[in-house]
Specification:
465 residues, alpha/beta, D-Maltodextrin-Binding Protein, domain 2, 2 domains, 6-stranded mixed β-sheet, 4-stranded mixed β-sheet, 18 helices, 43% helix, globular, disordered N terminus, Bact_solute-bd_prot1, signal, ABC transporter substrate-binding protein
């Protein structure tokens, strides 16, 4: 035996002795415990029980309230999940769309983020770009990935890693109080006899004028510019009235600062003076406008979807029928609608057990044989999966399915989006308050937004190096 082999044999012998001594020393600390205790073997066929794990789920009101109680349905989901996964405890905390975003920012800054969140790409993608989320690719089966449009995966992915598990969707569009038009004998002014319901800016203006003249106690249409909430409504509204995109196709620059979009914004200012658009829109939030719609005081609302239609069903303060409409376009061309996309994400809190448990919960919410479809219906949304259709016996959902053909790429996946959106409403307010023309405000927005996009790209490239 060579010297090298002898040294190796000696080292192995020493290690074996140390391991035996360590094994003897790991017995319990009672004074009279035996060093010869043999580990008890589990009976044949019995598997070791998983260690209990507790995860925290923060949830916006993504599901319709059950029996009028916010969070009650979510508790039902958790109870059903626990029947199959008794070792995972899920702590639920409901947050609101008004205060929730700031609460999340504070939690993230103080390293106390929840494990799970049900939200949309606008925030989730930003968190993903900051490295705050756990990748989900290992839990996505091929049959699921192939059943969902690449456009939805694009909104759920950062650097080729899936950070949001997409679940429900619906195109954002307008809604109109159909009952009002029936009462004033002007139903023919709405494009409801057209399968795709597309219509022109001029047709829309005629409908507003009819409400003003024949239903003076009803506000024809709404607009808002107080806060970021609902900004997708104002973006798509102006982009379609001006037949433009919000950002260009590669998300590198703002595209909405066109002459026609500027004129559309100027029209809103004049329409407010003409009582065709609600007064004081600069100080109104999206929720304020939709609340007036639910009270029957507003004929058109510009930030709606099949999801909101379902969630607002119990919030109506007046009896009326609302129907969904795409945004009108200047020339009658097909509209460009931004999609609502809801899904779940996991904050990476450096606990693999919690991440694994959170993935099990997401899979249950999205794919359980009973609760998968039940949860979709409770959101009021359409499934992101192409194979799951016809969930509702409702003509408005049939139309929402059809309107998916108008969905375009949303700007929310652009670099620096969290900063870009902060420049939008201040510019709208400047126009509404008479401090700038529509084109001036859109150009100012473009300058600030383009810089934010460029800065974010440069920062990302530096971090990769």
């Amino acid at each position: 035996m060579g010297a090298r082999m002898k040294r190796l044999t000696a080292v192995m012998s020493i290690m074996l002795v140390m391991m035996m001594l360590a094994a003897c020393g790991t017995n319990n600390n009672t004074a009279n415990s035996s060093t010869n205790t043999v580990k008890e073997e589990k009976p044949s066929g019995e598997t070791e029980k998983a260690k209990p794990v507790t995860i925290t789920w923060w949830n916006f009101p993504s599901f319709q309230a059950l029996d009028g109680e916010v969070g009650k349905y979510e508790k039902e989901i958790i109870a059903a999940f626990n029947e199959k996964n008794p070792d995972i405890k899920v702590n639920l905390e409901m947050i609101t769309f008004d205060g929730g975003p700031e609460k999340l920012n504070v939690a993230i800054a103080s390293n106390s983020a929840p494990d799970l969140i049900y939200d949309a790409p606008g925030r989730i993608i930003d968190w993903g770009k900051k490295g705050l989320l756990a990748p989900l690719d290992d839990m996505i089966k091929d049959e699921v990935r192939n059943d969902i449009s690449p456009a939805f995966w694009k909104q759920s992915t950062v650097d080729d890693k899936t950070v949001m598990y997409p679940i429900n969707t619906a195109p954002f569009m307008m809604a109109v109080n159909k009952t009002i038009f029936e009462k004033i004998g002007a139903l023919d002014l709405l494009p409801l006899d057209r399968p795709d319901r597309t219509w022109t800016f001029d047709e829309y203006k005629k409908a507003l004028q009819a409400v003003k003249e024949k239903a003076p106690d009803v506000i024809p249409s709404g607009f808002f510019a107080k806060s970021q909430a609902g900004d997708q409504g104002t973006r798509a509204y102006l982009a379609n009235l001006g037949v433009s995109r919000f950002l260009n196709e590669d998300y590198s620059q703002v595209a909405i600062n066109t002459e026609d979009a500027g004129k559309a914004l100027d029209w809103i200012v004049q329409a407010e003076k003409d009582k065709l658009v609600i007064s004081g829109s600069a100080a109104l939030a999206a929720a304020d406008v939709n609340d007036l719609f639910l009270q029957g005081k507003l004929a058109f609302t510009i930030n709606y979807s099949a999801v909101l239609k379902a969630q607002n069903a119990t919030l109506k303060k007046a009896e009326f029928e609302e129907v969904l409409l795409p945004f009108p376009t200047l020339d009658g061309s097909k509209p460009k609608l931004e999609p609502y996309l809801g899904g779940m994400a996991i904050f990476n809190n450096d606990d693999e057990a919690k991440i694994a448990a959170s993935k099990k919960f997401i899979d249950f919410v999205a794919n359980d044989e009973v609760y998968g479809k039940k949860n979709l219906i409770q959101t009021g949304g359409l499934s992101v999966r192409n194979s799951i259709t016809g969930l509702y016996n409702d003509p408005e959902y049939t139309y929402a399915e059809l309107a998916r053909e108008f969905i375009t790429d949303p700007p929310t996946i652009a670099d620096g989006w969290a900063d870009v959106r902060t420049f939008w409403f201040p510019e709208l307010q400047r126009v509404l308050l008479g401090d700038a023309t529509g084109k001036e405000a859109l150009d100012s927005f473009a300058a600030n937004a383009n810089k934010a996009i460029e800065d974010a790209k440069a920062k990302a490239q530096t971090q990769k190096k």
